[in-house]
Amino acid sequence: MRRAEFVTAIILGLLSVYLMWKAGEGPEWDTEYVHWANTGINIDGSGPGKGFFPFYLALGMLISCIWIVVNAIRRQSPPSQSDEPFMDGYAKKMLLMVGGGLIGFLILIDLISMYAAIAVFMLYYMLILGRHPAMLSVVTSLVVPFWLYLFFDIVMTKVQPKGLRWIEDTIYTPAGNFFRDQSFIGIVMFFVVSGAILTFVARSARRQGGA
Amino acid sequence: MDIIPALMDGLWIAVQPHNLALAVIGVVVGLFVGALPGLGSVNGVAILLPFTFVINEATSDPAAPMIFLAAIYYGAMYGGAISSITLGIPGASTAVATTFDGRPMALKGQADRALVTAAIASFIGGTVATLFFTGFAPLLSSVALDFGNPEIFALMLLAFATFIGLGGDDIPKTMFSIFFGLLLATVGFDTISGEPRLIFLNEREQAAVLGMVGADPEAVPFFDSVAWFSRGIQFLVLAIGVYGIGEMLWTINASRYKVTMTETTISAKRIWAGIVGMKDAWKGTTIGSLLGFFVGILPAAGATPGSLMSYGVAKMTSRNPRSYGEGNPDGVAAPEAANNSASTGAMLPMMTLGIPGSPTTAVLLAGMVIWGLEPGPRLFEDRPEFVWPLIGSFYVSNLVAVLVNLAFIPLFLAVLRMPFTILAPVIFVLSIVGTYAAYDNMNDVWLMVLFGFGAYFLRVLDYPLAPAVLAVVLGTTAEEKMRQSLLLSDGDFAIFWNPFFDRDGKGQDWWIAPITTWIAVILIALPIVLWAVRKMRGGSSVEA
Questions:
Q1: B499 and B372 fall within a common domain
Q2: Confidence class of residue B223 from pLDDT cuts 50, 70 and 90?
Q3: Contact list, B175 vs chain A (CB under 8 Å)
Q4: Are residues B285 and B395 located together in one domain of the fold?
Q5: Nearest C-alpha of chain B: how many angstroms from A59?
Q6: Domain total of chain B
Q7: What span, in angstroms and rounded, lies between the C-alpha atoms of B141 and B6?
Q8: pLDDT digit string (tens) for B455-483?
Q9: B234/chain A closest Cα distance in angstroms
C-alpha cells in the first residue's frame, strides 16, 4: 500500500505538471501566441486569461501531490502506514474479471448492439463470476436487455446503439416495427409476462438452492 | 412572499396523480437503493438522473423530475437502516451510526423494533427539517438576492474550505480532489473567451472539430464525429463513473459478495409495539432532528457526519451512556432522525444559494441545470411553480416513505437476499445505458468507465471523491464568478477579502464576501494550526 501511495502521488504530480503546461497553451491556429501568455491575472485590462484558472488549479494539484509524498515519507497517512498490499490476489482477480468484462462489454456495443452486449455481459457475469444456474443466467440475460429495449427504444424512443448495419437491418428494424405497432397495454403485457417468467425461473432456482 | 398559501399550492400540486406516482416510485426505488449494501442516495440519484430526461419530456410539470429524485433521496435515507440492522452492514455511509445500536438490537431478537424505531425517527427528522426548510429557505434566498459575483465566489470558496477544515479526510488528498474536480470543469471551451482549452487536440484536429474553413474533415479524432473533450467533461459522466462503476468495484472488493442476514418477522402487532416503544427513543429523535438539519446545511457535512454527531451527542447527554452500543433505541433513533433531517438541510444551500451541501445535492443541482433551471436566490422569485411543489413533495415523500417502509419491510428483506452477483451487473448495465441515453455518445460511456476505474484506485488509497464531484458541479460557476469579480477589480484579489475595497466607485463597504472569505481562510488554516498546537505540546501528529 505504501509503494502504491508513492507511485500514485508521483503519477498524479506528473499529470499536474503536464496540465500546467497544457493550460499555458494558446489556440493551435494562433501562430504568434507566446506560451503562458494566457495564464496572467489581468490581460489587457480584461481580467484573467483562459489559462489562469486551469494553470493554478494544476499547480494546486502538484502542491497537494508533493504534500501527499511528504506525508507518505513521514508515514502520516493510513495507506503509508499499512503493510497490506495495494491489491491482494482477490482484488487483482476481481479487477481482471469484472473490469475485463466491462471493457469487453463496451467493445461489443459497437459490434453487436447495446442490448446484445448487455445479454452477453449479464450471462458472463452470472454464469462465470456468480456461478448461478444456467437457466436462471440465460433467462435473466434475456429479460433485462428486453426490458431496457422496451423502455428506451420503444416507450421513450431513446435509441441505443444497434451495432453493425446488418444486425440493425435483420433484427432491430423488424423488431422495432413490431413493437411500435403494439398498444401501450400490449407493451405493459410484454413487461409483465417476461417478468413473470423471470420470477418463475428465479424461484425454481432458489428452491433448488442455486440462487 | 406569503409562505402558507404558497406551500398549500405546492402541496396541492405535489399530490396531483403524476407527481404522487413519481414520489411513490422514487421512494420505493430509494428504499431499495438505500437498503442494498454499498449503494446510497448518491448512487441512486446519479445512476437514475438520465431517466429524468424522459420524465421531463413526458410531463409538462417542471417540478416532476426533481420530485422523483428528491423522493429517491428520502427513500434511500430510510432504506439505509434496513441493511444496517438486519445485515450489520450499513446500506450507505449515512447509516453507519445506525449499526452501532441497530445491529445489537437485531442480535437480541429486536430487529423489528429497531426497524420501526428507525422508520418513525426518520419520519420525524424529515418532517421537522422540512418545516425548518419551509421557514428558512425563502428568508435566505431573499437575503441572497443582493449577492454579487464576489459574494457567490466567496461562498463557493467556503464550501471547498469546509471540506478541508471539517471534512475529516486526509487534507492533501482532499485538496487534490477539489483541485482535480475544478480542473475537470475547465475542460472544453472557455465560457468567456470562447477559446478551446485542455481539449488535447492538435492544430488539424482543432480546426476539424471547430469546422473551420479549409479544415481537413478526416482529421476529426479517434472514435466518433465529436471529439472526446471538446464538449467538456459532462458532470454525469464523472458522477456515474464514480458512484456507479467505481463504488461497485470497491464494494465487490470489500464485501467479496458475502453477507449474513438476521431473520426478522414483521407484523402489524409488532409494528404497533414498535410505535409505542418510541417513547424510549424521543430524546435521540429530538437531538437527531435538530442537529441533523443544521449539520446538513454545512457544505462538507451532509447526512453522514450529521448522523454520527447526533449519535455522539445523544450518547454524551444520556443518563446511561454505557447502554449505547448494546442496543439502545435512542442510539437508532438519533442517527436515523439526523440523516433524514440532514438530507433536507443539505437542500437549503443548494436551492437558495446554488451551492450543494452534499454529493447527492450536487447531483440534484446538476440535474436542475440540465433541465434548464438556475439554482440560486432567484429560483424562489422566478420559478415558484417549481420551488413550492418541490417543497410540498418533501412532506408528501416523507409520509409516503414511512408508510411504504413499514408496510413493505418483508419485501425489502427479500430483496436484500438477492445475490450481489446479480445486482452488480445490473448496476453496471444501468450505468452504461444511462450514460449513453443522456448524451447519445459512446465516447462519454468510455470516459465514464475510465473515471470509474480511476475512482476505484483512488478510493482504495483513501482519496475522498465527494469533493471532486462537488467541484465539477461548481467549477464553471466558480471560475466565471471569480473572473468577473477580478474584471471588476482590475485583477485585485482584495475584492474578496477587503470590506473597504471600493468595487463600484461609490465608496460603499461590502462585508459579506470578505467575512465569508476569512471564514474560509480560517477553515483552511484550522487543521494546520491544530497540527502546530499538537506539535508545540509535544504530541505526535501520527494518528493510530
A1: no
A2: very low
A3: 60, 63-64, 67
A4: yes
A5: 9
A6: 2
A7: 15
A8: 999 999 999 888 888 888 888 888 988 88
A9: 17
CA angle B139, B140, B143 (to 5 degrees): 90
Domain membership of residue B524 as a residue range: 494-544
Q: What does B61-124 look like in DSSP terms, one character per residue? A: -TTHHHHHHHHHHHHHHHHHHHHHHHTSS-SSGGGHHHHHHHHHHHHTT-HHHHHHHHHHHHHH
Over range B426-433, report the average pLDDT. Answer: 90
Same domain? For B502 and B412 the reply is no
Question: Residue B122 above 70 pLDDT?
Answer: yes
B197 — phi, psi (to 5°)?
A: -150, 145
Q: Range with the lowest mean pLDDT among A162-171, B72-81, B222-231? A: B222-231
Complex ipTM, two decimals? 0.93
Tens digits of per-residue pLDDT, B170-202?
Answer: 889 999 999 999 999 999 888 787 777 887 776
Domain boundary residue among B397, B424, B451?
B424
Could you tell me which chain B residue has the CA closest to the CA of A6?
B461
Position A196 scores a pLDDT of 94
Give the whole-angstrom CA distance, residue B169 versus residue B330: 28
Q: Are residues B141 and B278 both part of a single domain?
A: yes
Question: A3-12, B71-80, B408-417: which has the minimum mean pLDDT?
Answer: B408-417
Residues 265-284 on B with a CB inside 8 Å of A are none
How do B188-189 and B196-197 pair as beta strands?
antiparallel
Contact indicator for B290, B132 with CB cutoff of 8 Å = no
DSSP class of A172:
I
Give the closest residue to A121 by CA, choosing from A134, A106, A131.
A106
DSSP class of A34: P
> Do residues B420 and B505 both lie within one domain?
no
When pLDDT is cut at 50, 70 and 90, the band that residue B543 belongs to is very low
pLDDT of residue B250: 87
Q: A206-210, B105-109, B283-287: which range is least confident on average? A: A206-210
* Residues of A with Cβ-Cβ distance to B421 under 8 angstroms: 125-126, 129-132
Interface probe, candidates A22, A53, A69, A76, chain B, greatest B C-beta count within 10 A: A53
Q: List Cβ neighbours of B237 (8 Å cut-off, separation of 6 or more).
A: B435, B439, B444, B447, B448, B451
Q: Provide the CA B119 distance to its chain's centre, in angstroms.
A: 21
Q: Is B77 exposed, middle or buried (0-12, 13-18, 19+ CB in 10 A)?
A: buried
Using CB atoms within 10 Å of the CB of residue B212, give its burial: 0 to 12 exposed, 13 to 18 middle, 19+ buried. exposed
Per the domain annotation, does B184 fall within a domain?
Answer: no
Grid coordinates belonging to B345? 438541510
Cα of B342 to nearest chain A Cα, Å:
29
What pLDDT does residue B213 have?
67
Cα separation, B190 vs A130, whole angstroms: 47
Mark whether B286 and B407 lie in a shared domain. yes
- Cell 492544430 sits on residue: B203
- Do B542 and B417 lie in one domain? The reply is no
Residue among A8, A90, A98 with most chain B CBs within 10 A, to mutate: A98
Q: Which of B407, B424, B441 is the last residue of a domain?
A: B424
Residues B415, B514: one domain? no
Q: What cell numbers appear for B212 in the block?
A: 473551420
Q: B419 and chain A: CB distance < 8 Å anywhere? A: yes
Residue B358 lies in a domain: yes
pLDDT tier at B541, thresholds 50, 70, 90: very low
DSSP string spanning A122-167?
A: HHIIIIIIS---HHHHHHHHHHHHHHHIIIIIIIS--PPP--SHHH
Residue B252, pLDDT score = 86
Question: What is the rounded average pLDDT of the residues B52-56?
Answer: 78
Range from A127-131, B24-28, B94-98, B135-139 carrying the lowest mean pLDDT = B94-98
